[in-house]
UniProtKB/TrEMBL annotation, chains A, B:
Protein name as annotated: S-formylglutathione hydrolase
Residues in coiled coil: none
E.C. no: 3.1.2.12
Hydrolase found in the keyword field: yes
SUPFAM superfamilies reported in the protein's UniProt record: alpha/beta-Hydrolases
Entries under InterPro entries matching the protein: AB_hydrolase_fold, Esterase-like, S-formylglutathione_hydrol
Cited Gene3D superfamilies: alpha/beta hydrolase
Family: Belongs to the esterase D family.
Protein function: Serine hydrolase involved in the detoxification of formaldehyde.
UniProt keywords, alphabetically: Hydrolase, Serine esterase
Reactions the enzyme catalyzes: S-formylglutathione + H2O = formate + glutathione + H(+)
Entry keyword annotation includes Hydrolase: yes
Length: 284, 284
């Protein structure tokens, strides 16, 4: 597997690196960021936590703005931050709006033309990138953690529910929980999956729970109550109701005064790292 | 004093805000960022730490990338991050190079035309902005701390040495210590202050020490040994030699493998916050 190092910089005893590789899933070159704690640089296998960012973000955003690295270094966790969509796929209009196309891949596999050729972040997250982390970066762990923000929170929830054996720990920050019924999700799913909403359920966290999917371990979600997208786009109450009905362990915390930004994320990020470190059995 | 709130967002129990105001010193509208810990939002006076960023940065950079806020919140410190230059001053060529003009004000008062009308960050940092923090943000502290990175490290050092009664605690990350003898400094000083290098000493940390200026408390400096600007632009060894000769208390630490970036800054930032909190007598 060809992995090109774009950059590598020391940080908290480890290194923050950007890698590029030809993705067979996406049919394009793809970039991702990694934080390797000191132990990983020495060749030891460490627990791995995937970080999925939201609309308008790149593979760089989460590591730059969340302040997660200090906590990950202390817990001996490797961090993997994929991009939020394929890039330069050549789909007409892919750069025209912030909520469809570039930086808005929704971590699913498009089935609808013209998106279906390259917009396959679903399989990229579920299979190709975890395999690459193991083969190219010396990780022997079979189980990873997954966390995300907003559209990336949606990604963490659906991937966690679809493959709980791979994604051993799951958490989300201000996630979109039921894309099938909110404007961002309806726009993206109609484009990527087609107008038939019956085919949307497999990429929708509330619908997955409703269909019987369940994660055996508690999912942690933090949500700001001054989040400008709370009532229209995020709707964590819908997940809470479905989780209670289906017996999904869930810890959903609301935070008065906090909005949708990384200023909120950094306020609660230590608890998320602790959640994943505990479930992944990280030696700290 | 007219202070316009551009944004204000909850973070770590306090708030990150961007303010704009008509600066009489600069003759232009100016922006700065502030982190107010919870106590400050309740109207209590707290210790204040100024953060000066480097070339190409804005008033937003230090708070977004340094991960300092969690530490400041824990120590009950207010943070003030000014811009790195006047903006839209209308000087011909001010946006043409990264190391002169916009985002390259060098925290001094230009005396040379056409820069001298607006490029007066020296007095802005020394006087107008501290006064504004007291009058508009309810701070009663007479003494502040000052810290900076690269060009901002130069700023922290010169202001600390020029006014040690105001700037009670001083630290720097990868600072330019002797601008009069390095390419970045020579280019900027020649433009802002004129070709007569005899007039540069009052804005140069090593020259200030040489002329008898001294800060009564230990200055903390951290420097990465893989910093791409170390040998040509930064030269902390020159400060170390002069500090030893003049009896300036200095703790200069070198860090193997670290470069000039905010990945390095975030690795050592906790120690800088502790340094200032201790000297400023912050209740923690």
């Amino acid at each position: 597997m060809t992995l090109t190092t774009i950059s590598s910089q020391a940080c908290h005893g480890g290194a923050v690196s950007v890698f590029s590789h030809p993705s067979s899933t996406l049919g394009l070159e793809a970039r991702f960021s990694v934080f390797q704690p000191a132990a990983a640089l020495r060749g030891e296998s460490t627990p791995v936590l995937f970080l999925l960012a939201g609309l308008t973000c790149t593979h760089e955003t989460f590591l730059q703005k969340s302040t997660i690295i200090a906590h990950a270094a202390a817990e001996n966790l490797m961090l993997v931050a994929p991009d939020t969509s394929p890039r330069d796929a050549g789909v007409p209009g892919e750069d025209e709006s912030y909520d469809l196309g570039s930086a808005a891949g929704f971590y699913l596999d498009a089935t609808n033309s013209p998106w279906s050729d390259h917009y396959r972040m679903g399989s990229y997250i579920a299979s190709e990138l975890p395999d690459l982390i193991r083969t190219a970066l010396g990780q022997t762990e079979s189980r990873f953690g997954i966390m995300g923000h907003s559209m990336g929170g949606h990604g963490a929830l659906i991937h966690g529910l679809r493959a709980p054996d791979l994604w051993h720990s799951v958490s989300a920050l201000a996630p979109i929980v039921h894309p099938s019924v909110v404007p961002w999700g309806k726009k993206a799913f109609a484009a990527y999956l087609g107008e038939d909403a019956g085919r949307w359920a497999e990429w929708d966290a509330v619908s997955l729970l409703d269909s019987g999917k369940r994660h055996p371990r508690e999912i942690l979600i933090d949500q700001g109550m001054a989040d400008q997208f709370l009532a229209e786009q995020l709707r964590p109450d819908l997940l809470e109701t479905m989780a209670a009905r289906k017996g999904q362990p869930l810890k959903l915390r609301y935070h008065e005064g906090y909005d949708h930004s990384y200023w909120f994320i950094q306020t609660v990020i230590a608890d998320h790292v602790a959640h994943h470190a505990r479930l992944l059995g990280a030696p700290s």
